[in-house]
Design goal:
alpha/beta; TIM Barrel; about 10% strand; globular; binds S-adenosylmethionine; binds iron/sulfur cluster
Length: about 350
């Protein structure tokens, strides 16, 4: 995550948050729950999805900017299915956000001009061509994503590949790192997480066993030491190894206080696993975005997930001296905070 302008203001927000005042520094907008592929571990595509009108989204982005938001993430479902995405990217640019998008990559080439304005594109790639197409359930997905990624790279957009570790793609991590090296992209990994969102059960064969995860993490730590482009912090990988599959992750969570998500219909929720926190007093278009964010519950005691996005931030916000030093040195050399 590259740092946007105004690092001192961000440090101020962090200090205020540690004193109990919430600031939504990072907002993840789930533009839709619809998707054009079907990954076996993805439960959210089974949630019925309505969308806010474009003017509601634009006004929401302005409201969060006034609350102090610096990072904005377009996520889903598949965000490239949403027609006004280009308008939202332009709005985020005007507001000075650091803008990123998480995508399955299949439609990048159709929307290239709009996507080039993003600061970072995180593209999910789950193995080599055969394994990736098997995981997402659609032939040709890997090839389309790669065409799109090469076009984005040629236009200077930063890229991260995100691989969800299952029990079968462990031996494909080398292929992914080679692909990252070829594209000049970081490669991030996170385990399959059981979420409550959508209610559908995840097929047990997709969930890595404890031994497989321990081996995968050891391999990634060695690769990172050897200078390969593993875009996960050492702290995150060690915490995954220590906690997988049934122990708490081990750090306090800042969801709902320093970062939050917005559902396609406009409910502000602490994180994407937290469907049960959708409540009338958190519907931004009805109650206003400031009130909706202020109504979020304190989730600091929850250590229930291994999602890389929130947990990397939680580790960083824990401000352990080792992580803070590493992040500072990454920033100084223009790398992602957790490289
Ligand atoms: C829900 S997707 C939405 C964005 C886009 N459709 C994509 O796949 O990149 C965001 C990320 O979450 C990952 N994901 C989905 N379900 C997951 C689960 N149960 N455990 C871990 N990661 C998951 C996806 O692979 C993707 O990398
Ligand atoms: S591409 Fe993304 S949203 Fe679509 S099914 Fe896979 S993980 Fe879910
Ligand atoms: S640890 Fe935080 S991000 Fe993860 S499920 Fe709990 S509240 Fe959500």
């Amino acid at each position: 995550m590259a740092l946007p302008a105004h690092p001192l203001r961000i440090a101020g927000s962090l200090a205020r948050a540690r004193l109990g005042r919430s600031v939504p520094l990072k907002v993840t907008h789930l533009l839709t729950y619809h998707c054009n592929v079907e990954c076996g571990f993805c439960t959210r595509i089974h949630v019925p999805s309505d969308h806010m009108a474009p003017d509601q989204v634009v006004s929401m982005m302005g409201a969060f900017a006034r609350m102090g938001t610096k990072w904005w993430v377009f996520n889903g479902g598949e965000p490239t299915l949403i027609n006004p995405l280009g308008e939202y990217i332009e709005t985020g640019k005007k507001l000075g956000f650091n803008l990123s998008m998480v995508t399955n990559g299949t439609r990048i080439e159709h929307r290239l001009d709009e996507l080039c304005a993003l600061d970072l594109v995180i593209c999910s790639i789950h193995g080599d061509e055969a394994e990736h197409d098997r995981v997402v359930g659609r032939q040709g997905s890997y090839a389309a994503a790669l065409r799109g990624l090469r076009l984005l790279r040629a236009r200077g957009v930063d890229l991260i590949l995100l691989c969800v570790l299952n029990d079968k793609n462990r031996e494909l991590m080398e292929d992914l790192l080679q692909l990252g090296e070829e594209l000049g992209a970081g490669v991030a990994f996170q385990p399959v997480v059981e979420t409550r969102l959508g209610g559908a059960a995840i097929e047990p064969s997709l969930v890595p066993r404890q031994q497989a995860m321990a081996e995968a993490v050891d391999w990634l730590l060695d690769a990172k030491m050897a200078g390969r482009p593993v875009s996960c912090s050492r702290a995150y990988l060690e915490a995954v190894a220590d906690s997988w599959p049934n122990r708490p992750f081990g750090v306090k969570c800042w969801a709902g206080r320093l970062f939050c998500e917005v559902t396609p219909e406009g409910f502000v929720v602490p994180c994407c696993s937290e469907e049960e926190y959708m409540a009338a007093d958190r519907h931004g278009p009805t109650v206003g975005w400031e009130k909706a964010f202020a109504a979020l519950p304190d989730r600091s005691g929850c250590q229930a997930c291994w999602f890389k996005g929130p947990q990397e931030l939680n580790l960083l916000l824990g401000l352990r001296p080792k992580q803070a030093l590493r992040a500072a040195s990454n920033l100084a050399s223009g790398r992602m905070l957790w490289d």
